[in-house]
Amino acid sequence: MTNAIIDPLAIIELTNLKAAGKLEELAWHPQLGMRPEWVKELVQNEHWRIRYNLAQNRAIASSPKAIQTLASDKNHLVRHSLAYNPSIANYPEIIQALAIDEYPRVRESLATNPAIANFPEAIEALTNDEEWDVRFCLSSNFALAHLPDVIVTLSSNTDPAVRCGLASNPAIENFPTMIQTLAADEDAYVRYNLAQNPALAEFPEIIKKLASDKDPDVRIALAQNPTISSSTASTNSWQTTQPVTQAPTI
Q1: pTM of this prediction?
Q2: Does the chain have fewer CB atoms within 10 Å around its N or its C terminus?
Q3: Which residues have CB under 8 Å from 73's CB, separation 6+?
Q4: Looking at residues 5-31, what average pLDDT do you find?
């Protein structure tokens, strides 16, 4: 039993779920950590959905053996679920393994996880990942707000997917020169992502520039940005005769 405060009602709820055979619900219950013996049972369950739910449960933070087992689960969807879990922050070897997992969805999940902020080797691996959506997820991870050197490095990346992720990341608010560069990026998708960024509220000149962007999708994205007052720029410059059906393609 852990040293956590025992909640009698939670124990009753957990017991009822197990008695009723509702193991999928039990696996993601936030108080599951009160019953470490059940965590041990669930991690060995033959049904992948149960292990999937367990892998995303933050309550497994105090169960290193469970995390290690889930990190090497034969089903990549279970590893994908674990890669999202911030509770892996204290397991550097797990993070490094997930950063080079053979399945892109696993690496994509890890790239969005704030837990990677303290692991430069994992960040480097994800930055150079062969899949563009992995690189996009990394560069759009708000945890980068604490890693200005990484942001600067990513900003010079020639890959438009990386610049798109940065453009959508509120963490760039402390980099006005970078925001100016992204606003002038030749790739419309980069400007489209920047136009949706809540950090733009502090940059009226950039808002004005994007409001007259040559791409109508960029102007509409700006108009739909909830953090920007409609009085900041001319509404007419955002108008287009064609409705937006999809984001610009890379």
Answers
A1: 0.77
A2: N
A3: 48, 51, 55, 79, 82
A4: 75
